[in-house]
Amino acid sequence: MNHELYTKYVEKVPNIIKKYGGRYLVRGGEVIPMFGNWNPERIIIIEFETEEQLRNCFNSVGYLKIAPFRENSTITKSV
Where does the record place the DUF1330 domain (predicted)? Predict the structure, then answer.
């Protein structure tokens, strides 16, 4: 993990998510797997009222500008 790049992402992404109506439900903390063998180090759950808000957020110019900080600093999976 490249902490310097990831820090740049983490500093900017909350304001972008908020701008599009998103809110964090879960952000970090201990992950305790219940079933299966998936055991992520960190989990983040973000809620949007509509799919349109979600898509607008993650396709926005602001987000696309910072996305490389996440993409080049850590391995992530999004659902």
Answer: 3-77
| Beta carbons within 8 Å of 38's beta carbon, 6+ residues apart | none
Q: What is the mean pLDDT of residues 33-52?
A: 91
What is the DSSP-derived secondary structure letter of residue 42?
-
Three-state DSSP at 19 gives helix
- Least confident residue range of 7-16, 18-27, 30-39: 30-39
Considering Cα of 60, then 54, then 24, then 4, what sign does the dihedral take? negative
Q: State the maximum Cα–Cα separation within the chain, in Å, rounded to a whole number.
A: 38
Tokens of 29: 């903390």
pTM for the whole structure:
0.84
Which domains does the chain show, CATH number per domain?
3-71 (3.30.70.100)
Do residues 70 and 6 lie in contact, with contact meaning Cβ atoms separated by under 8 Å? yes
Percent of the chain surpassing pLDDT 90:
67
